[in-house]
Amino acid sequence: MARLTPEIDVNLNLPIIKQLELKNIFTVLDFLEEDADRLCTITGLVYKNIIEIRRQILSKFSAKSNNGLECYKKMLVMTAKINTGIKKLDDLLEGGMLTGNIYEICGLSGIGKTQLCFTIASHVTTNLKQPVYYVDTKHDFSSQRILQIMRTHHFNDMEIQAAMENLKVTRVNDIYEMITFLHSLGSMLENMPCRLIIVDSITALFTPFLNEQRNDGLGLLNHVAATMKRISVTYQTVFVTVNLATSFIDNDDLDGQQTADVCWYGDIRPKLGKAWMHMPASRLLMHRESSMPDHERIVTLIKSTDLQLAKKCVLKVTSSGLEG
To answer: pLDDT tens digit string along 81-128?
Structure first.
């Protein structure tokens, strides 16, 4: 608690503060809790001066009240929807990804999750001309594939160069490097605001902790999720995380629990267990049916805090990325 100082009010000089300290009144809270008549006796000040000092203390140290309507208007100004550049997917998301939220793309290995990330990143840096932070945890980021996607959309060399400069790729080797990156991300966003941060993939960071007895990974997972949520809300950005899914029952989760009661789609379920299950605001599952052509994928909304569940669309994997 703040101590009494002469800077609070012109009537609160050092001799008066000394007199108050002799009566065990050291902080602004002590001053506010003390009876006004007794303060007049201790300090020799008139009642009006005591009330003025209290008013100054409340003005300088009290929490500021906010008008609910003004907060709502500020939120409308700050928030935005980042479209993915894929019409069917944007329709499914009712316009795009809402800033201040964490989105997850999950699916079986090789289904096209990274290709979807490449497509979204290429669109944001070229068409929207906004920077993108891309966190590569698998060390499989392909600049050649990004260039191919951009060139098939007929951007010229100068536009492609500007877009590639806006794509900030960071490779992390483990969860500790990821935490270090997240802690430095705030200052990076202060210098270069960014609406989209892609983490491909979140599963790779926690694989070393699966099936361990001490549950260290569970605490780290909660820390990473809370930090990403704080950053997304504070800087009104979107986190897109990639999570692996499995098509069989196992206990390879950080919490050691099966998750058959939540967020399943048929026999497919996301990894990382219940600890991560409710962290993303929206979860998109990429999958395909056996009767479908090899280049087609279904994207189904299996979790959302504000959209209708089970909505789906069919996308095609092409040289231009995912289209639909």
So the answer is: 999 999 999 999 999 999 999 999 999 999 999 999 999 999 999 999
Residue 220 is encoded by which pair of tokens? Answer: 């780290």
Backbone dihedral angles phi then psi of residue 276, each to the nearest 5 degrees: -100, -15
Nearest to 205 by CA among 180, 230, 169, 229: 180
Number of Cβ within a 10 Å radius of residue 140: 12
Alpha-carbon span 28 to 221, nearest angstrom: 40
Region label for 21, one of left (φ > 0), alpha (ψ between -120 and 50) or beta (otherwise): alpha
Say if pTM beats, i.e. exceeds, 0.70. yes
Question: How far, in Å, CA of 125 to CA of 119, rounded?
Answer: 10
99 CB-near residues (< 8 Å, 6+ apart): 78, 79, 80, 81, 82, 195, 232, 236, 237, 238
